[in-house]
Amino acid sequence: MRLLVPMDDSEHANLALEYALDNYPEADITVLHVVGAPSMMMGEAVGLVFENDISDAAAKRAEPVFERANKIASERDQDINTTVGIGYPIRNILDRVEKYDTIVLGAHGEDWSRVTRRFLVGNVAETVSRRASIPVILVR
């Protein structure tokens, strides 16, 4: 079984990875972190544009998430794969579904207390669960 576990820097993302590792110990698990998502102020997306090597810059920005993911996996004596996406999280997740059997996703990602951001961006977990052509497990 091949599982895709999209992760941001939230506790819910950590719980999703823990769930995947604990419930599917034999699975091939890939952690996806997406950087450079456009925001209202265009902060991270604009920052990537000014980098000489966008892929390298994205990988560096993903390092803290991957370090945490690898720590969670190593605590369970398991290995994971990691991959970086650039741009919109929903699009990055849905563009990869052909390679996986199931998506395991935290039910709440970023700090959704910012009502304006939620209104403009939408809920990643909700949208992915509605649009994905493979099963999606939402972890709370």
Automatic annotation (TrEMBL):
Ranges for domain UspA: 2-140
Protein name from the UniProt record: UspA domain-containing protein
Pfam families xref list: Usp
Family named by the database record: Belongs to the universal stress protein A family.
Species per Swiss-Prot/TrEMBL record: Natrialba taiwanensis DSM 12281
InterPro entries xref list: UspA (IPR006016)
